Amino acid sequence: xxxxxxxxxxxxxxxxxxxxxxxxxxxxxxxxxxxxxxxxxxxxxxxxxxxxxxxxxxxxxxxxxxxxxxxxxxxxxxxxxxxxxxxxxxxxxxxxxxxxxxxxxxxxxxxxxxxxxxxxxxxxxxxxxxxxxxxxxxxxxxxxxxxxxxxxxxxxxxxxxxxxxxxxxxxxxxxxxxxxxxxxxxxxxxxxxxxxxxxxxxxxxxxxxxxxxxxxxxxxxxxxxxxxxxxxxxxxxxxxxxxxxxxxxxxxxxxxxxxxxxxxxxxxxxxxxxxxxxxxxxxxxxxxxxxxxxxxxxxxxxxxxxxxxxxxxxxxxxxxxxxxxxxxxxxxxxxxxxxxxxxxxxxxxxxxxxxxxxxxxxxxxxxxxxx
Length: 371
Known about the structure:
By secondary structure, the protein is α+β, with helices and mostly antiparallel strands. It has a domain at 117-368: Penicillin V Acylase, Chain A. The chain has helices at residues 27-37, 39-55, 57-60, 64-72, 75-81, 83-96, 100-106, 109-112, 203-210, 216-223, 272-275, 285-299, 306-313, and strands at 20-25, 123-127, 138-145, 153-160, 166-171, 178-181, 185-191, 232-238, 243-248, 253-257, 262-265, 338-346, 351-356, 364-368. The strands form two sheets. An eight-stranded mixed beta sheet has the order 1-4-5-6-7-8-9-10. Strands 11-2-3-12-13-14 form a six-stranded antiparallel beta sheet, covered by helices on one side. Strand 9 and strand 10 (253-257) form a beta hairpin. Helix 1 packs parallel to helix 6 and helix 5 (75-81) packs across helix 6 (83-96).
């Protein structure tokens, strides 16, 4: 597996692992515990989001106050279907001592900006027991976002009162959603860009609900909940080795099955059904390059380990829009992103390994779900 790694100047190196927050209780209580423990990071993420909106005014014609007004339109849909996750957001706001409107706006940013920023270049992939050296089921995800939010990354180990325990990565005031639960269900999400977005249940609320699933069918059902505002690609991995990419928009979906033991997804639709509703596909060329690159590297090996997946996460072909994505000085402010964290999951062992920041320079740290 011939990956390309390049030494990139000014890449942030973290000397410590991402903070781990252990929470338990009702959803309101868990949110409050997160807000209290990560108060500085929650407030920082709100400041970053306000700054992003301000700097993007020429494109969006939207102020932070306008974004708050728009985000309130999504709240009744979330409250009707998933009041428990609205309670989590309320708890985060209470614990961090910030306005609830600010937390709602953070969690609906993609919707209120109408995806105009195309701000996500995440890469996700997985292999089942047939393609690993030890028969384990493995998954990997590079989370690409604005560099200013890198400082706000943390890990949540949660024991909800009436839902399965889970382990997930998040940052700032966002609901946790990328991770896995005690029923052997892992979710990785990649932003996609449909043209049928509408006011409805925010994508992050839908993704948060998936972590409460006890069965594959239940997880998929939560992704396809009626009245959703838009959709992600949800790369769903089960401890049995079943793997799916569920490509979702507001009104449509398609389910891709990892029949050969490999699964890769980035930020464009793969199914013919969903390609017909993709917004501005010509702006997603870098997504296609990353997809083909990750797909090639993954399929060159049939005896994968956590380390081999981590090697793929460090690849720099098509820099700066590579799998390991770097914010290189001179890039337009509207297009400034980097990999703020990279994680690999051993679903069989119930472990998550996380590199805080670019994985080419930062060490992986191990977290375990004790259910």
